[in-house]
């Protein structure tokens, strides 16, 4: 208080803090900055100090987009007092007078009114994240599993995710939704989509070593080939994405900088682009024009996904778990197809080995650019099947799963890695870049991302942890078996018995094809329309009737046959659907398919 409440007391200065009767709360000062969408034209983003207390401390992280509720207040501008200015001087005119000797320091009036300066601040009482997707809460995939996320969604979101998981052309529809105005470059757009899904990060239990799951992609192409447009699209789509230019950014701006705090006068860490994009995507344009010393600074962030700082007495290791989407121009401004990739880009070998995917963007977008200038694209805008919000929810929900690599997939990855190493050693001069163990890890991450993009998950109305499975079918299991009780259905069919070898799959596929070919030959071309899926399954069960002993065997073989048929239609394109009946389509054999082993 400024003075004692007792009218008989004239005490104004001799007060002490009573610690026992005081209550203490946590305190944090946050600095917010204007978003690019709200920034006035030609203006620099403005910042503002926000004060939070109690349970709201540490509720937000650098890079979050939030809405704040509170009160505008004024606080003393302590930093203003530390600015260089006039100092207090001792009285030197009349040293003999006792009264002036007792006064001590004088000249405080020379400080002027600097001690009365105040600045605006915002006392926050509520923070709400703008990145919420499910149930009005923000979350990280490390703390939320798929079952909890599924229960927090509404019935409409359940139906949307279920229909998307059963979509046979999910990859094409997702790409069309993300990049509706970019013509061609389908492989590039698919690679960027896999980057958004990402792989599965892993950590060893004993040593604590981490293996990154984020995918790094680099786009290489001549100027005006929509590279920057792809980066801008990803920045607008991802709830946590940072766009920066490699030429205009320094190493400290990309990683982190150490600055002096204006209030405490201590050195603190200011987050850079990679830290702000933690658990998101960092888009770096003009990547090839970065200084080599700045490229070296992000080596650790691209592989270990951490940033180590030792400056001005500050030693810290910070997380930078972000995927990097970079765009670079070839040497000389034009891509030389007669030379390998490593001679067309001005990147070092360690940087190139840290990218999982390299794409060379071509001139296929020339026609689309002309249409945009003529205004044709505005009149012929194609409709996308899903909205941006649906794709965001689908990716967020898919990243909750952790697909496992089967033995067959592991053998295929090892054989492909051996082939890459062999071709690299035999054609070292013409290879794109040196094949290292990082390329094997890249193959694993891309395989996991592809499994997340096309999930083989049964999303029933009574979704629970027991029916969450990732296997090789592409359809909802409940649609393939004519049993009313779903609980009996799941208990009867053992998921481990659904796995078959490739020889068994090839034998079953040839049986079905030969049967359909024989029916087609028995009838004329005008009369033959095809075979219904259920009829084909019933014929197969009759052929193996002697091998079926229990009802469980019957359900297992029915499910296997159904999944083989769906794979022949959607993956191998051996069978063709003649109508749009999803439950029992009319099937016929592709005329160009030839049975190799009869």
Automatic annotation (TrEMBL):
One GO cellular component term noted in the UniProt record for this chain: nucleus
Subcellular location: Nucleus
One Pfam family matching this protein: MCM
EC number: 3.6.4.12
UniProt-listed GO biological process terms: DNA replication initiation; double-strand break repair via break-induced replication; mitotic DNA replication
Signal peptide annotation: none
Broad class of enzyme this protein falls into: hydrolase
Keyword terms of this UniProt record: ATP-binding, Cell cycle, DNA replication, DNA-binding, Helicase, Hydrolase, Nucleotide-binding, Nucleus
Gene3D superfamilies named in the record: 1.20.58.870, Nucleic acid-binding proteins (2.40.50.140), P-loop containing nucleotide triphosphate hydrolases (3.40.50.300)
Claim: rRNA processing is one of the keywords in the record: no
Primary location: nucleus
Biological function: Acts as component of the MCM2-7 complex (MCM complex) which is the replicative helicase essential for 'once per cell cycle' DNA replication initiation and elongation in eukaryotic cells. The active ATPase sites in the MCM2-7 ring are formed through the interaction surfaces of two neighboring subunits such that a critical structure of a conserved arginine finger motif is provided in trans relative to the ATP-binding site of the Walker A box of the adjacent subunit. The six ATPase active sites, however, are likely to contribute differentially to the complex helicase activity.
Family membership noted in the UniProt record: Belongs to the MCM family.
Oligomer and partners: Component of the MCM2-7 complex.
Record-given protein name: DNA replication licensing factor MCM6
